[in-house]
Structure formats: C-alpha cells, structure tokens
C-alpha cells in the first residue's frame, strides 16, 4: 500500500515573524479555533510548539475577558425551561 502524501503545514506565526500574539486580536486567534471554538491541536494547525503554547495562552486570556466564548452549544436551546 502507498502512503498518503500530505502537504507540509507551516506555522503561520513563524512566517509572519510576529513578536507576540495579542489576545485582543480575535480574528487572528480564530484560525486556531474550531467551529465550536475549541482550540485546534498542532497537528491540524501546523503551529510550532512554541507558538502553539502562546496561542493557547492568548485564547485562554481572551476567553477570560469574554472576547471568545468558552462553549458554543448548537443543540436546541430551550428559552424558558420552567414554562410548560
């Protein structure tokens, strides 16, 4: 069997030659988040270990400051659970 050939992923932060990641820049942080706002792993984003750790800290700070939600629930939401 032949092995699948994947394209090499590059760290977007290393290529951009950034000094640091600002937690207030939500648009940049969204590239490292899934559609349910979970932090994507390095193997999917292609980030280096150094930058992945910095991205995680920035996302956690943004969540703490309520810039990014902790949980996004796509299921049916009951507006008033006490109303029958």
Automatic annotation (TrEMBL):
Task performed by this protein: Binds as a heterodimer with protein bS6 to the central domain of the 16S rRNA, where it helps stabilize the platform of the 30S subunit.
NCBIfam families found in the cross-reference section: S18
GO biological process, one term: translation
Listed InterPro entries: Ribosomal_bS18, Ribosomal_bS18_CS, Ribosomal_bS18_sf
A GO molecular-function descriptor: small ribosomal subunit rRNA binding
Keywords of this entry: Ribonucleoprotein, Ribosomal protein, RNA-binding, rRNA-binding
Record PROSITE patterns: RIBOSOMAL_S18
Annotated Gene3D superfamilies: Ribosomal protein S18
Pfam families cross-referenced by the UniProt entry: Ribosomal_S18
GO cellular component, one term: cytosolic small ribosomal subunit
Residues making up the signal peptide according to the UniProt record: none
Protein name: Small ribosomal subunit protein bS18
Oligomer and partners: Part of the 30S ribosomal subunit. Forms a tight heterodimer with protein bS6.
Family note: Belongs to the bacterial ribosomal protein bS18 family.
